[in-house]
C-alpha cells in the first residue's frame, strides 16, 4: 500500500439531518427483519424433517449468505445515520470490500445452483434424485464458497493496490471499488477494466445463465399438468423477481466506465439490503414449516 490516507469519510445515503433520522429508523427495521427472517429459515431448514430436498439445502446457504451480506453494509449505514463523524478506517474499509464481494458472490452462485436444481426437477424428474444427490449438492456448495473466495480475493487485491494521496470522502454508505477508484491518485482505467471483467462479467454472465434457465423451464412446463405448472411457476416467479432486483443494480454499477453517479447509492440499496430482505418471503413451504415448527416449540413449553 502506497497511501497517506488512514481513514475515509462515508457521506451515507443523505446529508439532510431530518432524512438521516428517517434512514436510521427505516433501515434498522429492514435490517432486523432481514436478520430474523433469514435466521428463522436457517433454523427451520436445519430442524425440519420435511425440508430435506436439495432446494432447501441451497436455500439454507442462500439465507446464511443473505444475512451476512446485509450485515456487511447495513450496520454501518444505520450507525452513521446518527453519527456526527462518519469515518471508517482504511483496514475496516478493505475488510468491507472483501466481505461484501465474498457474500455477494456467494449469493449469486447459490441462486445459480437453485435455478439448476429447479431445471433438473422440472426437466429431468426421473433422474432428479440421482443427479441432485446430497454428495453432489455438498460439492456444488463447496465450489460456490471457493469461487466466492477467489472473486473477493481478486477484488481486495485491486483495492489494496490503489494509492490514496489526500481526498478521502466517499460519497456512498459503504466501501466499494467504484467509489474508491474515484479517490485513487493514479490512472484507474486498467483497474476499472479488471473490475468490469471480474464483477461485471460475473453479474452479466450469471444473469444470462439464470434467464436462460427460466426460459427453458417455462418452455418445458407445457407438458406438465395444470397443478404442476402452477407450483413451478410460483417458485420460478419468486426466484425471477429476486434475480431482477439483484442483478439489475449490480450490472448497472459494475459494467461501466470508472464514473460514479448520485443515484448509485440508491441503486445499491436494492442489492445490498432489498434482496436479502425479500429472499425469506418467497417460499410458502418454508413458511408452513416455520409455523409448524414454532407451534410444536410453543406447545412443548406450555
From TrEMBL:
Membrane spanning residue stretches: 22-43, 55-78, 98-116, 136-158, 199-221, 233-254, 266-282
Residue ranges of every copy of the G-protein coupled receptors family 1 profile domain listed in the record: 37-249
InterPro entries (alphabetical): GPCR_Rhodpsn (IPR000276), GPCR_Rhodpsn_7TM (IPR017452), Olfact_rcpt (IPR000725), Olfactory_Receptors (IPR050427)
Organism for this UniProt entry: Acinonyx jubatus (Cheetah)
PROSITE patterns: G_PROTEIN_RECEP_F1_1, G_PROTEIN_RECEP_F1_2
Places the protein is found: Cell membrane; Membrane
Name recorded for this polypeptide: Olfactory receptor
Membrane topology: Multi-pass membrane protein
Lineage: Eukaryota, Metazoa, Chordata, Craniata, Vertebrata
Record-stated family: Belongs to the G-protein coupled receptor 1 family.
Organism superkingdom: Eukaryota
Purpose: Putative odorant or sperm cell receptor.
Protein keywords: Cell membrane, G-protein coupled receptor, Membrane, Olfaction, Receptor, Sensory transduction, Transducer, Transmembrane, Transmembrane helix
